[in-house]
From TrEMBL:
Cellular localization per UniProt: Secreted
Name assigned to this protein: Matrilin-3
Gene source species: Cervus elaphus (Red deer)
Entry superkingdom: Eukaryota
Pfam families reported in the protein's UniProt record: VWA
Length: 146
């Protein structure tokens, strides 16, 4: 798991290879502080492609069957262009989920997410209830391979 924190700027909090156990990951997530105001979703997706989903940062190589998945969480409307960068991310093999919180713009979420949209776009009222999506993501990402 990697975390790319974004607002008007983007900061990679930690890379894919940084944490190998649940407790250290939870401690690292608890230490994350929100960045200042702004919603540069396109820049965040581009940064994830350029820096987080690289072999050097811990991503598996092109011959791997391990999927690349990004969950974009936003409570606003992107202040930059997300259409093209999201399309490039999807074309590069990254599956995009979009989670809107509070006043998030639903059309923007749909522009970012992979198809089918009903499986990749979510909405929650507040950050406090975002955990209700965790079981859905666990089913999707941690399903047993028959």
């Amino acid at each position: 798991v990697a975390v790319v924190n974004y607002a008007s700027t983007v900061k990679i909090e930690f890379h894919l290879q940084t944490h190998s156990d649940k407790q250290s990951l939870k401690r690292a997530v608890a230490r994350i502080t929100p960045l200042s105001t702004g919603t540069m979703s396109g820049l965040a997706i581009q940064t994830a492609m350029d820096e987080a989903f690289t072999v050097e940062a811990g991503a598996r190589g092109p011959s791997s069957n391990i999927p690349k998945v990004a969950i974009i969480v936003t409570d606003g409307r992107p202040q930059d262009q997300v259409n093209e960068v999201a399309a490039r991310a999807r074309a590069s093999g990254i599956e995009l989920y979009a989670v809107g919180v509070d006043r998030a713009d639903m059309e923007s979420l749909k522009m970012m997410a992979s198809e089918p949209l009903d499986e990749h776009v979510f909405y929650v009222e507040t950050y406090g209830v975002i955990e209700k999506l965790s079981s859905r993501f666990q089913e999707t990402f941690c399903a047993l391979d028959p």
